[in-house]
Amino acid sequence: MAEPSSTRAGRRSGESTARADILAAAREMFASNGFKSTSLRAVAAEAGVDVALVSYYFGSKHGLFVEALEVPVDPAEQLTRAATGPRSALGTRMITEFTGAWEGETTGTALQGLLRSIVNDPGRSNAFGEFASHRMVPLLSEKAGVDLDTARVLISCVFGMAMVRYLIGVPTFAEMSRDEVIAMYGPRLQLIVDADGTVSP
């Protein structure tokens, strides 16, 4: 089946360049407009391609975002895995899942670099901040059966730990082993979960 053709006159976006053109347009638009306000149609128009071609390559706005920001592990998939299982161990599963990726042999360096770029680049900070607000928080709330405020607190705790451990290198955090981090944070995150009054269906 042939790929959709470009609809913008004077712009070459054939098979060899269309994907790169879409990613370049997406990076610019996510940085300037944020996640929520960026549509696939707008990215397609900026890249000079049919909107169907964006879906063909990336599937969804979520998929496009993950590739545009070069996220080596999809944080939404991490949250889904963490939320799968007994609610009584959600705190431990969350810190285990995220530290596993941040310290992983194949993903750790790239993810720590991503965190650093988010802090230092206002465009990336805006894009990731909106992704966290409009994708990650609602997803955790839905999958884990907690309210939005609880989901916000849980995510802020996990990412706050990442900042002081991996980016700033605060000794009291950076000198701990991963097992020690899990042992410290798991039960305390669970206290936040247990204080949530949401009744799962």
From TrEMBL:
Gene3D superfamilies assigned to the protein according to its UniProt record, in alphabetical order: Homeodomain-like, Tetracycline Repressor, domain 2
DNA-binding region: 39-58
The entry's keywords: DNA-binding
SUPFAM superfamilies referenced in this protein's UniProt entry, alphabetically: Homeodomain-like, Tetracyclin repressor-like, C-terminal domain
Xref: InterPro entries: Homeodomain-like_sf, HTH-type_TetR-like_transc_reg, HTH_TetR, Tet_transcr_reg_TetR-rel_C_sf, TetR_C_16
Keyword Kinase: no
Domain HTH tetR-type: residue ranges: 16-76
Lineage: superkingdom: Bacteria
GO molecular function, one term: DNA-binding transcription factor activity
Name under which the protein is recorded: Putative TetR family transcriptional regulator
